Amino acid sequence: MRITDIKATTVTVPLEAPLRHSNGVHWGRFVRTIVEVETDEGITGLGEMGGGGESAKLAFEGLKPYLVGHDPFQLEALRWKISNPTASLYNNRTQLMAAIEFACIDIIGKKLGVPAYQILGGKMRDEVEFASYIFFRYPNEKTGAGEVRTIEQVVDHVAELKAKYGFTSHKLKGGVFHPDYELEVYKAIAAANPKDRYRFDPNAILSVEQSVRFAKAIEGLNNDYLEDPTWGLNGMRKVREKTHLSLATNTVVVNFEQLSANILDPAVDVILLDTTFWGGIRPCIKAAAVCETFQYGVAVHSSGELGIQLSTMLHLGAVLPSMPFAIDAHYHQLTDDIIKGGLMTYENGKIKIPTAPGLGVELDYDKLGQYSELYQELGGYPYDRDPYRKDWYPLLPNMTEHWADPAIVK
Question: Which residue in the list 173, 315, 330, 367 is annotated as catalytic?
């Protein structure tokens, strides 16, 4: 079997409402690039990457000389062709490689008639548990609904998510308002749901001192971990020295060199693996094995996935020996998907692992066309800007005048 072509289509899929974070806003939609890798046996594999537009299309087209004629079973050779360490200094292809690896694993599974988890070592579980992903949100521009800003709105939002999806672990995305206010929010959620588990992620916007104060203030709660309170391995190390909480990251340990540095001089306790950021499912499995050896916890990070990448997260979750934490996903914030059957369904806070060959999902070409046209109409958006705060930009660590005011709607 040989690869004959690769196609990239950028789509934008609406969210329930714009999602606020420490470095900007998701402007009411996610932009993703869907990849189709074709073979001479008529089998097509599916991949997905965050962001997109003409630049993504050109980037994938630029890889055709590497791909056309390659055997999709030869994944290790493909990794060295596309993203060997020296070439990656000049061509940051990690996320491109991830999307292509997804597609090749999909092809292999379809060729062999087995789900991806069979290729990756066999499943350890039939379903994967998810945490709610709680964002402060602006109101939906069209309907005015969906705002999450006040403490009461956040608590009500968590109750709605629990009732609808069955989540019992909750992640609050912070770094928008002053940490004192977000501490009140976090404590209020925990007080309203005393049997559930919690994690807080301000996207590294806090200083070391702010991080330590926040950590000490929540030490009595039922925390999974504190995620990326401050920036950098050294900053995280300073926070870790002064708290009993486990620290987690998806920003400062995202490759094997950083993982080795963290093992030699620990700064974080839980590594949040991301099938895109690490370059595919297989690198995540390799990293998880290293973490298992050195007794580091692992969880799975969300990077704004649609159903194709969500499937890669499910297959990763299926094969990891230990899954002590519910995994993250923005997925319940979406209003639709580009896979057949629409959005995958949660049951008791979990999603069943696909059992069809390959990744176990198929493209809905009507939806692909619909959301490709919507992208052509709306274009992309700057992730690190807030459309309602003119001239605002993030600082790390943030300063008083750069925090949003929780009394202001937008």
Answer: 173
